[in-house]
């Protein structure tokens, strides 16, 4: 079945839905989600949006805090663009129905998180992402130019060179130089019917989120399997900085809690990290900012404390603050912890680090364009250069909003030229001799092996030996998955495993290349930062390997 649309957006978080709302002014938009529309990292985001909103703060301060957190790898022009657009994009969310928490005088109740020198986090209680996701879903559902399709999984990009067997050398757009490749749409699996549909689109946008499920322990939703990164890489686009996986320091440690994050905003309001004996320890690791140090520092500190003590968790204590304040400021965290038998107004919260955010991703320019004509990437799946080696807290929702807007401005400029390009005939998906997979253990076993391997060997602290072991052990798994890909009819689980395994291999490869420690990448065989050789992005491309 062949479907035609002006715009195809894969992913329904803050970046994908806000872009869909804007593109709907220009034509028909098709938005795909792997499961229900609310299942996204945006919906789980607690903290808020970093946005200069007070007289004692400044764009320059937000800019420098971002650079400091990024540990030398931020692209300064991108940081400047995103920081300065924050107030406009927050006002836009309010126009779309998001209600942020305000004080009695009508000003924002600004939060403070690790790495920030000022209070600048605009929030809606401690469920900011949920408030944003709800407003955006309502916005696009009421729009007749937007179609939302749930239970649809992207398989691969359809490119012109593949169809013709040679480079089409299409003309450049907006001064970007000769276009080596052009995206015509995607093959997409309809999970309900099992049919692989052909979707032809003038513009295709990857907004698939991160890849936290590559790791055994993560704060991410189940859909975060690195799909956009894997799809773009297979199509020939460059990816960058995949070694910089940010581990959130404080996820709830409880045998019944799957992936519940304890927001960094608690530490912004005075919560302290304690060891198993009840002693604060961050002063030893970050004397200046202590519990409000950047996430890479705090995560490594907790990892060191756990290895030293053998304890299963450390503790986050905010019980010294008034109970009414805690319940009002953090209602979601309070109620969730209470459901697990913990009253955070009276006792500390057991926490451990977990994989949280991909600082790298698909390489884009300042407008979200990838190396492939007509293919954009926005949100966590992209590498814009904002985060460098380590993301500053609450810059992720901001990046999704701003880069969606940036992509809209460029697509608006190029749309008529893109639309005028001829699309060659596209063959429907051919299943060949594939049969149903009758043993689901083939998927579940490899899924578990990869995630545990990544946690043990490519986690918070790495070494050359562990990385080499990971390389050797992941190779035969990927070879097996590739064989199965042609033997069996596609399912959502199998496509996720295929993408997850590819992203895992790319993370291992990127981490092995970087011979230093910086931001979210710490290798105990190369503990020092090497600005002379490694103050640069780690670039990988399917065609050439390391760039």
* Domain module count: 3
Helix content: 25-40%
End-to-end distance: 38 Å
CATH topology of the largest domain: FAD/NAD(P)-binding domain
Number of DSSP E strands: 18
Q: Could you please describe the fold and organization of this structure?
A:
This protein has 547 residues and is α/β, with parallel strands linked by helices. The chain folds into three domains: 2-244 and 359-420, FAD/NAD(P)-binding domain (3-Layer(bba) Sandwich); 249-355, Flavocytochrome C3, Chain A, domain 1 (Alpha-Beta Complex), CATH 3.90.700.10; 441-546, Methane Monooxygenase Hydroxylase, Chain G, domain 1 (Up-down Bundle). Helix content is 37%, strand content 16%. The chain has helices spanning 14-23, 41-44, 59-70, 76-95, 128-141, 160-164, 227-235, 265-268, 282-285, 295-309, 323-329, 331-339, 396-420, 441-457, 464-487, 492-513, 531-534; strands spanning 2-10, 29-32, 49-50, 121-122, 146-149, 152-159, 183-190, 195-206, 239-240, 245-252, 272-274, 314-317, 349-358, 361-363, 375-377, 382-383, 539-541, 545-546. Strands 1, 2, 5, 6, 7, 8 and 15 form a seven-stranded mixed β-sheet that branches. Helix 1 links the parallel strand 1 and strand 2.
């Amino acid at each position: 079945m062949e479907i035609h649309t002006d715009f195809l957006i894969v992913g329904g978080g803050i970046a994908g839905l806000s872009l869909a709302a804007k593109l709907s002014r220009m034509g028909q938009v098709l938005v795909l989600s792997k499961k229900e529309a609310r299942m996204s990292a945006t919906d789980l985001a607690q903290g808020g949006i970093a946005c200069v909103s007070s007289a004692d703060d400044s764009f320059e301060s937000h800019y420098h805090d971002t650079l400091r957190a990024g540990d030398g790898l931020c692209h300064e022009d991108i940081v400047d663009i995103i920081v300065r657009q924050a107030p406009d994009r927050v006002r836009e969310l309010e126009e779309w129905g998001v209600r942020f928490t305000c004080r009695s005088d009508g000003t924002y109740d600004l939060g403070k998180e690790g790495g920030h020198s000022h209070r600048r986090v605009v929030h809606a209680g401690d469920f900011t992402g949920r408030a944003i996701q709800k407003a955006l879903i309502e916005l696009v559902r009421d729009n007749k130019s937007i179609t939302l399709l749930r239970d649809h999984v992207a398989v691969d990009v359809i490119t012109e060179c593949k169809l013709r067997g040679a480079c089409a050398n299409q003309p450049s757009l907006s001064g970007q130089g000769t276009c080596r490749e052009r995206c015509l749409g995607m093959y997409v699996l309809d999970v309900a019917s099992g049919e692989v549909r052909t979707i032809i689109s003038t513009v295709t946008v990857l907004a698939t989120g991160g890849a936290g499920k590559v790791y055994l322990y993560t704060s991410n939703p189940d859909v975060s399997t690195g799909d956009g990164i894997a799809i773009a890489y297979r199509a020939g686009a460059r990816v960058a900085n995949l070694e910089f996986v940010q581990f959130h320091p404080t996820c709830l440690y409880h045998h019944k809690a799957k992936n519940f994050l304890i927001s960094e905003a608690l530490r912004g309001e005075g919560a302290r990290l304690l060891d198993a004996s009840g002693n604060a320890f961050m002063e030893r690791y970050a004397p200046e900012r202590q519990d409000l140090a950047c996430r890479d520092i705090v995560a490594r500190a907790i990892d060191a404390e756990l290895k030293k003590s053998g304890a299963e968790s450390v503790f986050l204590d905010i019980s010294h603050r008034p109970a009414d304040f805690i319940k009002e400021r953090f209602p979601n965290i309070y109620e969730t912890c209470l459901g697990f038998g913990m009253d955070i107004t009276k006792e500390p919260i057991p926490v451990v680090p977990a994989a949280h955010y991909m600082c790298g991703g698909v390489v884009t320019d300042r407008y979200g364009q990838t190396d492939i004509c007509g293919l954009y990437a926005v949100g966590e799946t992209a590498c814009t250069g904002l985060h460098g080696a380590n993301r500053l807290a609450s810059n992720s929702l901001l990046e999704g909003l701003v880069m969606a807007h940036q992509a809209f401005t460029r697509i608006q400029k190029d749309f008529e030229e893109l639309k005028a390009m001829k699309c060659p005939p596209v063959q429907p998906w051919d299943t060949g001799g594939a049969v149903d997979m009758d043993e689901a253990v083939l998927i579940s076993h490899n899924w578990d092996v990869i995630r545990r391997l990544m946690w043990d060997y490519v986690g918070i602290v790495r070494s050359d030996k562990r990385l080499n072991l990971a390389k050797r052990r992941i190779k035969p798994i990927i070879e097996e998955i590739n064989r199965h890909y042609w033997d069996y009819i596609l399912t959502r689980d199998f496509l996720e495993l295929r993408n997850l395994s590819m992203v895992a291999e790319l993370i291992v490869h990127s981490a092995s290349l970087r011979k230093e420690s910086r931001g979210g990448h710490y290798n105990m065989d190369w503990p020092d930062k090497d600005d002379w050789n490694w103050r640069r992005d780690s670039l990988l491309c399917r065609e050439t390997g390391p760039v």
